[in-house]
Amino acid sequence: MTGAPALVVIGAGPRGTGVIERIAANAAELYGGRPLDIHLVDPYPPGGGRIWRKDQSPLLWMNSMAEDVTMFTDDTVQLDGPVRPGPALHTWAADVRDGRAVISAGPGVLEEIHGLGDQDFPSRRLQSAYLRWVYEQALAALPSGITVHEHTGRALSVQGPRGGRQRVRIQGRAEPLVADLVVLTVGHLDAEPDAEQQELAAFAARHGLVHLPPDFTADTDLTALPAGEPVLVRGFGLAFIDLMVLLTEGRGGRHENGTYVPSGREPVLYVGSRRGVPYHSKIGYTWQGERPPLPHHFGPGVVEEILNRPGPVDFRRDLWPLVAKELGHAHYHRLFTAHPERTAMHPADFEEKYAAADTGSPEFAALVASAVPDPADRLDLDALDHPLDGVRHDSYDSLQDGLRAYITADLERRHDPRHSPDLAVFLGLLSVYGQLTRLGDTGQRWHGFFSYLASGPPGPRLRQLLALSRAGVVRFLGAGMTVEADEENGVFRARSATVPGARTDARALVEARLPDPSLRTTRSPLLRGLYEDGAAGTDTGLLSVDPADGRILDRDGRPHPRRFALGPYTTARASGAFTRPRTGGPAFRQNDATARTVLAFLRDLSCPDRLTA
């Protein structure tokens, strides 16, 4: 320790990098030339952290195009600090190719960079190289008196009085780090199995079966899944896509002209979920023309009014109507401006009546029906969210044809600019997410809905899924999937509402989803210790933080003066630590607010006559 004020940032992935970048951006205004030691703690290398580390399979892709990924602020981000623009991923790759940016990367990553197109889906190891470069740029932008010290290890606890210095204990380090402030940016974490997973694991152990609980697919040992054997997979999101890739191409199979050529080492994946369909494909075209004005029906003023209401906020009652109104506004604004030939009402007339209508009323439905003749051009959020509701098949074979037709139609629509209102809804989802982060824990339903519509797989992955289905390597089970433990026969048994009466038995079950971000089940001794030390948690298990600056709240609602937290396990979780350029980036806004609060506190700490904390 140098005697300078000390800040410990726990988590060296993109969120921790973002905080350091904002400290660099705000230091001149708020901190002057004062010295500061920043201690960055993570068992994984800075920049990518665990999820985006470079040592993972090159088969694993991002689910965003290169042109849709940035770690830098722009003038669409609502922040008090200065905008510090920088290259999005595709621009950075061009800079590397042209020698304007210098990186240290292996030949495989360099080859990928040299072949990367703006609308390609990069590998995660390429994104790791970008994040490492951003981290290095953030370090280079720090004033000379601010020094970052990297500590390779896992933070185990934070202890200390509210009014005094904190002590951060690190695995493998004898002495704790002493900090004036601590910021947690630890990202996604492992979790203990819940009661159902414990029962399934015990059942598997009794009968010699394979049970893989919720986990990060890249970290899961898949060698226990035997070739040619049926495997039940519960979950149809991005974790499933990773699983699908690693168990097919990862075992030597290959895709040739829309056909899958198996290696013979693949298991047979029987996949189902609550919805019974994969996440919607990423949209495969870029925005053209006028953007919908967002936010419109659900903006900061509405959020302030909700925050000032007495009593708890119920998502379905208080927020969902506003979400639906905003998404509908984005959809119909685009339809009327870009595709007016498919409308039957003057835009101003429709907008006035839309603004006054209750989205759940018969009058609203009549308004939309009269203004938009083709039902395919109308926004039906319930039908989008539950596409197999009421759909029944008399056999699993029939379901395979039906699901392939559904996926094919989704791919065609999401790659056809004639359906550009879908892209407007995507922008609406980003806008809504930015508002909801100010309201605390809105529950899992919203995050699941957002991911399903806005954070789906690349189109090429769904085309591969179709090929795997035709090859018989993937079999669809349908919606409302349930899993039973059959003690008598010693097998897992799956059923679904889509094929009543049918069942599928297997000796292996994979839960294809991430662990829930919950204080109740986390394996992190750091978060458990914070909770035991008085930090507040919500009913869903998220860590309660002040949405204004990320300070951790205690059970009386008081913000801790020296502890902050940002990320998916907090009530202010944003849609991602990086985002699409020019879409507001709520995580960037949060990083800026936290960095400014940190700098002001540390500045005043070094000037005792100004200390107010």
TrEMBL record:
It comes from Streptomyces atroolivaceus. InterPro entries: FAD/NAD-bd_sf, HpyO/CreE_NAD-binding, L-asp_N-monooxygenase_NS-form. This is FAD/NAD(P)-binding protein. Transmembrane segments: none annotated. Residues 8-188 form the FAD-dependent urate hydroxylase HpyO/Asp monooxygenase CreE-like FAD/NAD(P)-binding domain. The lineage of its organism: Bacteria, Bacillati, Actinomycetota, Actinomycetes, Kitasatosporales.
